[in-house]
């Protein structure tokens, strides 16, 4: 018999290339920058990492299972729809987000001025108070592809807690 856990923990990672003629969207917030992220959807790698962390905590397949990148109906999809799908799967299994901790790794743009706006956006989408959302932005110290501004990577960790009946 499967035991229902009171808390589940998930981890997610995503990386997208920076390219010209695309918007830069992180956590549902458009960041003014001369480069944007390349992807089938809006390429919001922060939201993708968080959705994968939620799905991972539930021991479900990753976002590519639900939103394959070869399906034209998902072209330029708002990644908050992907995140809402992960949240919906959690609710079906009796879980909600407890807290999240996120890290964005980008050489540029500098994101400090957008942290609170991204936290507000995510708080609204996942329906948890901002004080349950940890969000940091760091650089890769000019090392590797991220350091050369070829892409942006993100990490997400979340706890899911059992919904009280």
Structure description:
- The protein has helices at 45-57, 63-66, 79-92, 115-126, 144-147; strands at residues 7-19, 24-26, 29-31, 36-37, 95-105, 133-138, 151-162.
- Helices cover 28% and strands 30% of the residues.
- It starts with 6 loop residues before the first strand and ends with a strand.
- The longest helix is centred in the middle third of the chain and has 14 residues, at 79-92.
- By secondary structure, the chain is α+β, with helices and mostly antiparallel strands.
- The radius of gyration is 16 Å and the shape is globular.
- The model has no long low-confidence stretch (mean pLDDT 96).
- The protein contains five helices and seven strands; from the N terminus they run E-E-E-E-H-H-H-E-H-E-H-E.
Topology:
Elements: E1 7-19, E2 24-26, E3 29-31, E4 36-37, H1 45-57, H2 63-66, H3 79-92, E5 95-105, H4 115-126, E6 133-138, H5 144-147, E7 151-162
Parallel strand pairs: 5-6
Antiparallel strand pairs: 1-4, 1-7, 2-3, 5-7
Helix pairs in contact: 1-3
